[in-house]
């Protein structure tokens, strides 16, 4: 996969705008605000790393994209966030790729959120009228390039959605506390991406477990012993997914998940899939795991 390298960092800007309650008085609870900023930063860093390299990295501090806070603006509480990229594997601005990726992550608007979206669009129209040269909205070709890249890599994008699920939820932590709505926009003219209220936040937070317990073979690609969470790829599912081990006891020194990760050999996972509000896989809650026989491993390796 060809990688484009920029002479100067490509700076992409996003805006988080908080409406209602304390936010209308230019205040935001610091704990909620810090969680919101961190959640957005981690989401952008992980998606941005994939944008830059074509590979998934669940460790946001090691991302190829650096994320910064910029001074807040007057008016309703607004926070500008800048992301700096030195490279890309898709010929479209980072903001376009990320906002197109997030398009399915935010529930469809209802009557309340549509009013806020309309307000953001009015601001967007005003900024477009006075936009400086080079500050225009993304072109149709750029949007199509981002959509094609996302469609080509949809399984990996879904894995990143699972990895960032908790962080993305935290973006909207002020909702129902120090704000009624959180709006996300991007670019110099602040193109609206989506707005979340309490109804939408409940959908984002919802865990929808499948009725059936499944048994499948998978290879662990990353695993944290401390949190008992990781990412695995399964031929049975046809894609990777995030998983978490449900047992609370301490893992043995050579646990099955770490063994699979370092040996790159499959293990059997028994558990239940949990889904997002739109039915896509959020994670697999693993009830038990076991190593396979040599024969089972060789059969799994068959094309």
Task: Report on the architecture of this protein.
The longest helix is centred in the N-terminal third of the chain and has 24 residues, at 30-53. This protein starts with a strand and ends with a helix. It contains nine helices and eleven strands. The radius of gyration is 21 Å and the shape is globular. The strands form two sheets. The chain has a five-stranded antiparallel beta sheet with strand order 2-3-1-4-5, with helices on both faces. A five-stranded mixed beta barrel has the order 7-8-9-11-10. The model has no long low-confidence stretch (mean pLDDT 92). The chain has helices spanning 30-53, 94-102, 111-129, 140-152, 154-163, 165-170, 198-205, 256-263, 294-301; strands at residues 4-19, 65-73, 78-88, 181-186, 191-196, 208-209, 214-224, 229-234, 239-245, 267-275, 281-291. 38% of the residues are buried. It folds into two domains: 10-205, no CATH class; 208-301, Nucleic acid-binding proteins (OB fold (Dihydrolipoamide Acetyltransferase, E2P)), CATH 2.40.50.140. By secondary structure, it is an alpha+beta fold. The protein is 35% helix and 31% strand.
